[in-house]
Every structure is written in structure tokens, then in C-alpha cells.
Amino acid sequence: MSTTTQRSLKHIENYALGKWIKGAGEGQVLYNAITGDPYALAGSKGLDFAAMTDYARKVGGPNLRNMTFQERGRMLRALALHLLSKKDEFYGISWATGATKVDSWVDIEGGIGNLFAYASLRRQFPNETYYVDGDIAKLSKGNTFIGHHICTPKHGVAMHINAFNFPVWGMLEKVAVNWLAGVPAIVKPATLTSFLTEAVVREIVASGILPEGALQLICGSANGLLDHAINQDVVTFTGSASTGRMLKSNPTIINESVPFNMEADSLNCIILGNHVEPAHPEFDIFIKEVVREMTTKAGQKCTAVRRIIVPENKVEAVREALNKRLSQTIIGDPNVEGVRMGSLAGISQRQEVMEKVEQLSKTQKMIIGDFENYEVKGADKNKGAFMPPVVFLNENPFKNTDCHDIEAFGPVSTLMPYKTADEAIELARMGKGSLVSSIVTANTKEARHYVLGAAHMHGRVHILNADCAKESTGHGSPMPLLVHGGPGRAGGGEEMGGKRGVMHYLQRTAIQGSPDMLTAVTNQYMYGAKYVEKDVHPFRQYFEDLEIGETVITAKHTVTETDITNFANVSGDNFYAHMDATSLEGTIFERRVAHGYFILSKAAGLFVDPKKGPVLLNYGIDECRFTKPVYPGATIGVRFTCKEKIEQEKKNADDIAKGIVKWLVDVYDETGETVAIATILTMVKKRNQE
């Protein structure tokens, strides 16, 4: 390439220390995967990684930690909406990575979808900068010493080293989680396709939605970045197992005990159930799923199907069906009408795949695919990074095991037979751990047998049949609220997973002390803490005015047999323990016992202030336990305590400003013992309606 041509190329930049910085020197030439033409220059030479990590921790970290979970969630939603409005620009750039419109949709809108998903997840967290996890641990007989767990954001930075195949999704699925947790990020996309990541980051920065220091970007080599990691950081890596192991063994990572999440090679498999016949709808579903996984992103997905495991008497039928569908797949320029599969991400990637194909060819037969005689529509196959789909047949997969060891990261898969369900499970396990495995079957027993036998070797098991095929997101689609990762060669890591994913960026700390002290620390009422009693009933107070620990000690009620009979008549609950004193022999009950739900209902009658006020409605029950039988003649009262307050934002300008209040309902009898305990929720109007 001439110097003149190189000078005319756009030099994509890095975003560090709050500004855009062009790497020093000429930079690495990036190519259009479709045309083979030089596309851009990238380089990170001159970046100060020590300063970047320090900036993230000292500027980005405090800015994010000062926000509550609710505020961070709303930030994610605003960012998602902004990026969605810019998606057309991203689609135009994505084309140069070899992606079809569908491929780009998965990458771009799928990535934005992660922002939306984690924005919604904010509702599972309090309007606090921290999260109180789990239940109280009673550490003493008199309940003066208790324990709990509090989760606070790590005072570090998330360093994300991403793969080339998903330059948008790969970034957004990770940063959505660390931002919700309150941790800043440094993103290092694969240089090959970093021009698309840079375009998205430019829009993120331009939006002004994120606080300063929340995001930095390295477009080029990040060699030396991990040398500056500390124990409060989190490192994630998506890429080859060899690179991942090298990074994971960095002395700093080891010495500082830095959490390292790796997503690596994965020889994912799909199983055709033994009960599926070619005439069944599941057979066609199976073929469509395999073809989709081989051709979407030209097979460049960490979740793509690499091993096709079918009953030995269905091998030929599957081969014929796959050949028919794959032969109809039009390869070429994604902008050309009718093209269904684009190119690989670059010539270098194609070369790597071809080398793996050559290795696989030594022990198995290529039954689909012709590197000489395939057509490319709208592009020059000799210049672009194109290749046809390839299917191998391994007739003896227990002996010829290359298919379980070698991953060709492209539109390449191996068909292999099994005799029994246990053989199918064993073949699945021979992949040594994967991100996902699928089984296509309408037989529930077959599905159960496979899942229980194979789940320990896969991060996700996808069960597919005619009932869910229409709405299924597919074998290759990780979901934000489900874990993504896998054991063994898949890296042993785990990301996303809803709230579970957020916890990777929080420090879970045990806290111990008196109920009063832990109530003050967590801003959640701990059983046994002192009550706050006021002259005004809490149902007469607005959301802002309620205090944690505020309690009503109610009047009392003596339970009668008439109460039990009347409740049975109203509810229709005539269970023998309530209504038939002659049937109690051999039970724990001494005589007719009051319904648990009568006790709770009567409790409500005791603690509710019936007049119209700030309380808008009963929102539900979180938990409820009936701990002691209540017989006629027992006298019950209620300790009704404000346990926790949860903010809610207005859905629109006309919505009522309100919040959710959790109440501890402690029902006790004349001995002082608790007979029922529950957490109920009310929706309470705010005084401030702005």
C-alpha cells in the first residue's frame, strides 16, 4: 500500500483521560472485509495505561459510586435510547466487518438490548449506592447480635478485552453490568473491527449521559495494561484459550488476586433427539437451527454449532437436508439483495479457519463445501474474506477426536452419529466444556435425560421443539438475564446472568452487630431493633415522611370459633384442621385451628388505617410464614414496622409520584410469641409530585 493511500485513511482514535487521542506512529491498517480494500488505521502507541487506570479509579469510580442503583439504571436506559436513535450509522459501518443486516442486528441492537435489560434490572435493587443481600443471620440466643451481608461497588476498574466478532455487543453486554454496579470500564476491542466499536463509543461520549471517567477505549495494542491492575479491578477476556491463559497468568493478575473472567474456545454441539423422525416438525427445526448457526456472522460466533450429533440411522437424512439448505445460502456483499451470508471479519481470519479446516480434513471427510466452485454475489471472492459453509462427516467420533479438539472459527461444523442417548451425552462431553449445547426433541423424558447428564459441561442447555421454536431466541443467543459462560475449554467464566452478573463487580461483605446498628448501616429494619413510634399512623404519611423502624403496636383481638367458621364460609377453605375437630388425631393440632390467612387478614384489619390517604394500594406479599398454631381463645396483636423504602420513578408526566414501602408484619399471641410473620408491600404517594 502506498504512503499516499495510507495517509488518506481515517485514523480511528482512542478515548482516554476524558479526551480523544490518536495513537502515535503510522498505525495498523484495517481492511474492509467485503472488498479487501484498506479501510482505516488504528494504533494505541503513546497511551499511558497507568494514567488511564488511575483516572478510572479516581474519577470514574467516585462519580459512579455516588449514584444509586436507580440512577445508574436510568442512565443505562437513557444511553440505550440514544444509541438506538443512531443505529443506522452503526449499520453502515458494520457492513465493512463482513456482517449482513441480520448479523449487524444481533451485534448492534442486541448490544443495545443489554443496556435496556440491565436498566430494567434496577428495580431489583434499592435506591441506594449499595445492596443488602440475603437474609439476617441470627448469631445469638437473645437476638442482640446478628449478621447480614452488604454489597458495595469495587473501587477499581473493569478491563474488558473483547473479540473481533461482536464489536458492539461484546462491549455493551459487559459495560452495562459494571456500570449498574457502579464501576468504570476500560474497553479494549479486537483491533480488527475496532472501527465499529470506536463509532459507538463516540456517540456514547457525545451524548454526555455517562459521568466523567466511566468509559475509556483502547483501539490497538493493550500490551502492558494488565500490569497496572489492582485487587479491586475486574478483568474480562473473550477470545482464544491460548491468549486467555497467557493473560490470566500475568504476574500482576496473580499477585493482586484480580478476578479474571474468561470466555474462550467452545466446541458447542446440537443433538437431534432419537425420537425425531424426518417427517416430524422437529427435524426441520433442527436443520434450520444448524444452518442458521453456521451462516450467521459466517459462523464467527463463540456460541456457533461446531458439532452436529445425530442418531446413526438419521445421518444420511440430515446430510441431505443440510446440503439442500446450505446450497441455497447466497454468499456475498450484504448490501446486495438476496445475500444471506457475508464474509469473515478479515483475510487473516479466513486464513486461520482454512488452516483448521486442513487439520480437520486429516481425520474426517468433507461432505459439504467446495473451495473452488462457490459463488460470491456482488463482490470479488479473491479480495474479500469469503468462504463457503463446510460440513465434515466423522463416522467414528470416539476414535477420531480432532472434531472435539480443533475449533475452526467460521462456517464449519462436523456431523457425527450416536447409537444411544448416553453416547450422545458422552460425545457432548468430549468437547471438554462449552458455552451452549442444544437438544431438539419433543420427548420430555429424552430432554430430561440429556440435561441432567450433560448440563455440568455446558454453560447453557437449549431445549428446542415445535412448541417454542417460533419464539425461541435460538441456540446461539445468550440472554442478558441468564448466565453466559461455560466450564473447561470455554474458559470457566460467567457473565451477564441478571443480578448475579452485577454481583461480580460488588464486594460482598459480612457485617455483624446489634439489630439497631445494622438497621442504621443498611437503612433496612432488622428484626429486634428499636421501634420508632409516632402519634400519626404511618398510613397517614407520605413516602418521604416515613422512617425506617416506624412502628404501630395495634389493638388486640381474641380469636373465636365463630371467626374460624365465618372465614371458612367466606373463603371456601374448609380444610379439616379448621372445621373438623374429630379428624385431628395423628396431626400436630390439639383442636380446631385458625386459618393462617385469617390471621394475616385479621392482622390487616388491626394495622390498616381505613381513611383515604397517601397509601394508594396493597402491592403484594414478599414472604409469609405461620410459625405457631392459633386456637380459639388466643389473643393476637400486631407489630407493624416500616422495613424498607424503594423509590419508583414516574412513567410519564401524568403519572403519580410514588414509592414502594415494605412493612414487617409481626403477629404475636398473649404469650408474646410470634405466630405469623410477613413482609407486605404498599404503594405510597409522594408529597413531592414533581
Order of adjacent strands in the largest pleated sheet? 16-18-19-14-13-20-21
Helix content: 25-40%
CATH topology (level 3) name of the largest domain: Aldehyde Dehydrogenase, Chain A, domain 1
The number of E-state strands comes to 30
Compute the number of helices: 19
Task: Give the C-alpha Rg.
Answer: 30 Å
Which structural class do you get from the secondary structure elements?
alpha/beta
Mean pLDDT: 92
Low-confidence stretches: none
Structural domain tally:
3
Content of β-strand:
15-25%
CATH architecture of the largest domain: 3-Layer(aba) Sandwich
- In angstroms, what separates the terminal alpha carbons? 61 Å
Describe this structure in words.
The protein has about 700 residues and is α/β, with parallel strands linked by helices. The protein folds into three domains: about 5-130 and about 150-260, Aldehyde Dehydrogenase, Chain A, domain 1 (3-Layer(aba) Sandwich); about 270-490, Aldehyde Dehydrogenase, Chain A, domain 2 (3-Layer(aba) Sandwich); about 530-685, Roll (Thiol Ester Dehydrase, Chain A), CATH 3.10.129.10. About 30% of the residues lie in helices and about 20% in strands. The chain contains 19 helices and 30 strands. The strands form eight sheets. The chain has a seven-stranded mixed β-sheet with strand order 16-18-19-14-13-20-21, sandwiched between helices. Strands 25, 26, 27, 28, 29 and 30 form a six-stranded antiparallel β-sheet that branches. Helix 3 packs antiparallel against helix 6 (about 170-180). The longest helix has 20 residues, at about 100-120. The chain is globular, with a radius of gyration of 30 Å. About 45% of the residues are buried. The model has no long low-confidence stretch (mean pLDDT about 90).
